[in-house]
Amino acid sequence: xxxxxxxxxxxxxxxxxxxxxxxxxxxxxxxxxxxxxxxxxxxxxxxxxxxxxxxxxxxxxxxxxxxxxxxxxxxxxxxxxxxxxxxxxxxxxxxxxxxxxxxxxxxxxxxxxxxxx
Length: 117
Prior knowledge:
- By secondary structure, the protein is mainly α.
- 77% of the residues lie in helices and 0% in strands.
């Protein structure tokens, strides 16, 4: 199924993660975001999003260009996942609208048929 993204850098006052560990964490979160969005596993995507937000809030500012790049890649993965969520929501809204219209048309047809009998 899905993996967790590891411990955060400031959990329970513990030691900060190394820059390499943070880069791996950001990369893993980016992969998880992409996987969840591709599978349209919205519940799991919500959990990964919450974990990402928590870890980003706890993360210290960095000057390491490789970690900055990993965070940018994470931000891009997040934008792509958000786009997929919005697209899926719009598709669902259109399907629901069509179903309502079809139901109204069927109801009108049944009323016409009943009044003609």
